[in-house]
């Protein structure tokens, strides 16, 4: 995560990520349940149903500079969350 703030990703890494996103996006849209989830997200979160189709363009138009800008904005110590997972039956004397 720290590296993303100081070193840009390669164009190849960005294109690979965009390809994976496009694949997942298209596969997700194949079921009615997923379509309903996308539409409800657009209405509830963005308050605009038109954004349901806009996300694809947003991600496909993302640049290396965008990735670095977002990393610098959100990958900060005060935003860090550390979880410690304990094996079942060993936590708290269970």
Architecture overview:
With 94 residues, this protein is mostly helical. The chain has a single domain (2-93), classed as 2-Layer Sandwich (Cytochrome Bc1 Complex, Chain A, domain 1). The protein is 63% helix and 0% strand. The protein contains five helices and no strands. It is extended and about 35 Å long. The mean pLDDT is 87.
Report the sheet-strand fraction: under 5%
**Fraction of helical residues:** 55-70%
CATH architecture: 2-Layer Sandwich
CATH topology: Cytochrome Bc1 Complex, Chain A, domain 1
Instruction: Give unreliable regions as ranges.
Output: none
**Overall 3D shape:** extended
> What's the overall average pLDDT, rounded?
87
SS-based class: mainly alpha
Head-to-tail CA distance between termini: 35 Å
- Give the radius of gyration: 18 Å
Q: CATH homologous superfamily name?
A: Metalloenzyme, LuxS/M16 peptidase-like
Largest sheet: none
Give the structure's gist in a few sentences.
This protein is mainly alpha-helical and 94 residues long. It is built from five helices and no strands.
Write a concise keyword list for the protein shown above:
Cytochrome Bc1 Complex, Chain A, domain 1, 94 residues, mainly alpha
Write the layout of secondary structure elements.
Layout: H1 2-6, H2 11-28, H3 32-46, H4 51-60, H5 64-74
């Amino acid at each position: 995560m720290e590296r993303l703030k100081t070193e840009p990703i390669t164009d190849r890494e960005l294109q690979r990520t965009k390809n994976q996103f496009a694949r997942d996006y298209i596969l997700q849209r194949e079921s009615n349940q997923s379509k309903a989830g996308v539409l409800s997200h657009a209405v509830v979160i963005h308050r605009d149903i038109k954004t349901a189709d806009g996300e694809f363009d947003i991600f496909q138009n993302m640049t290396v500079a965008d990735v670095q800008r977002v990393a610098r904005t959100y990958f900060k110590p005060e935003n860090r969350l550390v979880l410690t997972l304990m094996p079942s039956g060993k936590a708290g004397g269970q």
